[in-house]
Amino acid sequence: MAQQHLEPTNPTARPVPADALAGYLRAQATEFLRALRLHRETGPGPNGAGAHTAQNAGGGEPGVDAARALRRAARRLSGTLHTFQPLLNAEWAETMRPELAWLSGTLGLEHSYASRLERLLQALHRLSGSSAFPAQSAGATVAVAAAHAARPAGAASAPDRGSLTVGAAKAGALLDRQLTLARTRAHSTALQALGSARFHAVADKVALLASEVPLEAAAATADLRPLAAAAEGRLTDAVAALPLVTAGHPYNAEALVHGLAPDPAPHPQDAPWHQVRLLLRLHRYAREVLAGDGAPVDVRLLAAGQALNRHRDASEAAAAAAQAARTPRIAPATAYALGVLHADQRHEVEAARYAFQHSWQKEAVGTRP
Amino acid sequence: MAQQHLEPTNPTARPVPADALAGYLRAQATEFLRALRLHRETGPGPNGAGAHTAQNAGGGEPGVDAARALRRAARRLSGTLHTFQPLLNAEWAETMRPELAWLSGTLGLEHSYASRLERLLQALHRLSGSSAFPAQSAGATVAVAAAHAARPAGAASAPDRGSLTVGAAKAGALLDRQLTLARTRAHSTALQALGSARFHAVADKVALLASEVPLEAAAATADLRPLAAAAEGRLTDAVAALPLVTAGHPYNAEALVHGLAPDPAPHPQDAPWHQVRLLLRLHRYAREVLAGDGAPVDVRLLAAGQALNRHRDASEAAAAAAQAARTPRIAPATAYALGVLHADQRHEVEAARYAFQHSWQKEAVGTRP
Lengths: 369, 369
What we know:
Two copies of one chain form a homodimer. With 369 residues, chain A is mainly alpha-helical.
């Protein structure tokens, strides 16, 4: 299987001692504390001054960067505790993991809503084919543009011709209202979480972890590779269960099946892909643990992971469009635009599966000796 | 260019005399008259007893088969007159062609509406993922199923859960109403056409053609191949102007651009593809003329043609869904379903372009020496 071909878990390579695990956990704990300090210094973050630039990836807003770094470290700690749990103090790890998962989940929600809105407004922009939309603007600008887009065009042509574009604008305004509300709530929840006793207990434990990792006695002579290989095995098993033959066939129209079914959100067919996304992440973290500081970036794993992120984002965006369409008393033109948008995002789901299948096949071929 | 590789127009092969053209025209004229006789014997066709089975391809309904054969012969006569016009009596050909085009256009409309409805209802069925829909039924059954689909499911779940599926059913009923009306009108128009003096004049001319083809004097020493090659040249030029690089890249999301633009129907980006579809047909008929009775079926041309037919059908179905969404006073759930349906059919347009690109590339490779 694939785990025999990947360098870090190759059984012919040398054993990896538990020191590597301890070093990794200490480094992530340190990173967590650094991000937390930065977060406290830079204020409440995205819902403060730069409310609509949370999705400004790689951008200079320190609050956003700190929140992202905090989530990143929390995910890595949680994932590593999961994969290498047999080598760690069981009680400690079992208490720690759900707390870290709660934290990264709570902190991630606000960002999710912001990027979902961004994705949906950009899709509306693309679907409207209107030059009134700025091509690469941040959320707020697009939302405003969406609300006013092509009204001149609509006014210039026959009234029924303009109605669908007014529909796109209204759909954009509706999504903006609903997702901004959800995001504001998530922001408050995150702020409350960061001020809670529960959070301080986690932070204290992470601070302890930064200086001392509670390894089991057995860890002294252990090799990390079998546990990393087991994580990879869970991934490859889950990938093998995916409908990859269908996914590799372009335009299979699979993702939109049940697009008008009674309960279109969440899509049950997406669940195995979401699961693979999580397992791929655990595999990636295990590779980082084994490789230490010199972890080579596997571009294929990266591409596969990005495809699965896109899959998740499009799946959730499609659900949000379907959800918005259930708002009482919306205009038919708004509902029509939301229907087009929903289908467009399900199309994106299908495209992401195709991209995943593609990068995954490449990996299997590329790493064979 | 490709015309040098295809057997019938290969300049190294032997000249093809005008006899082949005369023979082909006589054969098509005879076929036209046979179909016309059959049509008169079997009655008014699709809108008679079997009103909802017009799209029952290959099926046993004689009226439908006769109408199809009539259109088929009229298209071949018209196309052949176009491609080989320099060898035919100019005045005769110039009078004849628009009449044949009028006839095949008029006779084809009813079938178009019927198959458009069939396509849209089957798509609604697929999108509803409902087992209440029979998988492979003809129009009427699907329409009835669409109108009632999943109402039990909707009733069993929460009201808002059911609304979208009720939307699909209502969308199906609305499309059924609108396209059946259009089809009924097209049927009347076709019947009127078949009883008109204009039609009888065409039929008389075709009857004359069946016995004598009005060739120009120059035809006696002419070679048909340069004119066939010119038809192929027009095709390859038009194909070269298509955005095939984009089309060959799966999930390029090009077909749904402007999906919410002020005037979504007809889609201007579809026009060059429709044009290629017509030129491909002319090329195919020219090949038939040159090859005579032993015309080998070029499976690649066939696949390319089928992809372009699918492109045209999906394009028109998408426009019909968008048009239906402009019906005043429809429910938001209906409009939502029509939006999903529109996007689904635009997705089909994109898939058809991908399929065309694929089969066309195959052809270019496959016929190179």
